[in-house]
């Protein structure tokens, strides 16, 4: 067949003449390269891409053009704000016949990082950090925003105080009539009864979003994640032996925090970032519901991440 293939997006007129805010595709599988100091890896991402359609008479956009331009991100060059900016510019240019003036791109991926054990030398494991990147070029203004989720452990200060009180009372009942207690008797009692009451702790999650500068050389994902984990102090572990588990128990016992404490710590650690926003969730072991907190210098409204 040598006949020209029909293209109804060009030859047909939209049945209702109205502009559309965004038109595009979602969930496109894409291999992407992430490179930062000490880290380079190809990751599986899912991409959402769209342009505006301000011309009311145009029936549809050229999705294959967007797909091919998006595929250019998978050619081995590391993700960067400049690279994203260039792709968005090309997407708008590819739709000049639709009068498109804006484009947006979303990327969802899991960042894999090898983390060492707390104590055991040579022991490590992989930890996954869900990441969402949103880049847009609207009215000539480029914006890039990162969102990352970081898991950590939290031990309730109130529960810890209540547990200590019960242990204190039990100790007084055991030794209250003695003027002096041999240290070996105290050690033996603690070995048997120090866990008479234990505070509740739970796996917790911080969802943090920040702006990325247009001229930044990299996305800065690892630095952002490391800053969050240092702020909470008890990031969840991967491979552990008993010595590592004991060290983790000690970290939790010396790092009691309410959900409010976690949100404030992380917000303070994000002082150098643009428009930081923090959402933390403690998945309670005491309650069937979660404890949550938001923090943002801009107070943009309390909408769950």
From TrEMBL:
<dbReference type="InterPro" id="IPR022838">
    <property type="entry name" value="GTP_cyclohydrolase_FolE2"/>
</dbReference>
<protein>
    <recommendedName>
        <fullName>GTP cyclohydrolase FolE2</fullName>
        <ecNumber>3.5.4.16</ecNumber>
    </recommendedName>
</protein>
<comment type="function">
    <text>Converts GTP to 7,8-dihydroneopterin triphosphate.</text>
</comment>
<comment type="similarity">
    <text>Belongs to the GTP cyclohydrolase IV family.</text>
</comment>
<comment type="pathway">
    <text>Cofactor biosynthesis; 7,8-dihydroneopterin triphosphate biosynthesis; 7,8-dihydroneopterin triphosphate from GTP: step 1/1.</text>
</comment>
<dbReference type="GO" id="GO:0003934">
    <property type="term" value="F:GTP cyclohydrolase I activity"/>
</dbReference>
<keyword id="KW-0378">Hydrolase</keyword>
<dbReference type="Pfam" id="PF02649">
    <property type="entry name" value="GCHY-1"/>
</dbReference>
<feature type="site" description="May be catalytically important">
    <location>
        <position position="156"/>
    </location>
</feature>
<dbReference type="InterPro" id="IPR003801">
    <property type="entry name" value="GTP_cyclohydrolase_FolE2/MptA"/>
</dbReference>
<dbReference type="GO" id="GO:0046654">
    <property type="term" value="P:tetrahydrofolate biosynthetic process"/>
</dbReference>
């Amino acid at each position: 067949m040598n006949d020209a293939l029909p293209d109804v997006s060009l030859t047909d007129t939209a049945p209702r003449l109205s502009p559309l805010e965004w038109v595009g595709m979602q969930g496109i599988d894409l291999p992407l390269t992430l490179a930062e100091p000490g880290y380079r890896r190809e990751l599986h991402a899912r991409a959402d891409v769209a342009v505006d359609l301000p011309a009311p008479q145009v029936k549809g956009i050229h999705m294959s053009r967007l797909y091919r331009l998006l595929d250019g991100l998978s050619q081995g060059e590391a993700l960067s704000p400049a690279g994203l900016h260039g792709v968005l510019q090309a997407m708008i240019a590819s739709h000049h016949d639709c009068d498109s003036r804006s484009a947006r791109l979303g990327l969802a991926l899991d960042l894999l990082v090898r983390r060492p054990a707390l104590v055991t030398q040579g022991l490590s494991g992989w930890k996954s950090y869900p990441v969402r990147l949103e880049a847009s070029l609207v009215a000539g203004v480029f914006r890039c925003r990162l969102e990352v989720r970081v898991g950590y452990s939290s031990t309730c200060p109130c529960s810890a105080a209540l547990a200590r009180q019960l242990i204190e009372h039990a100790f007084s009942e055991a030794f209250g009539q003695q003027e002096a207690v041999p240290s070996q008797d105290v050690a033996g009692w603690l070995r048997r009864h120090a866990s008479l009451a234990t505070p509740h702790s739970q796996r917790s999650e911080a969802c943090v979003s920040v702006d990325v500068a247009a001229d930044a050389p990299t996305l800065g994902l690892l630095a952002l994640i490391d800053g969050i984990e240092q702020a909470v102090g008890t990031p969840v572990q991967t491979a552990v032996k008993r010595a590592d588990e004991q060290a983790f128990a000690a970290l939790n016992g010396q790092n009691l925090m309410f959900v409010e404490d976690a949100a404030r710590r992380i917000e303070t650690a994000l002082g150098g970032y643009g428009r930081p926003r923090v959402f933390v969730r403690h998945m309670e072991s005491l309650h069937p519901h979660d404890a949550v907190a938001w923090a943002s210098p801009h107070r943009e409204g309390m909408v769950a991440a």
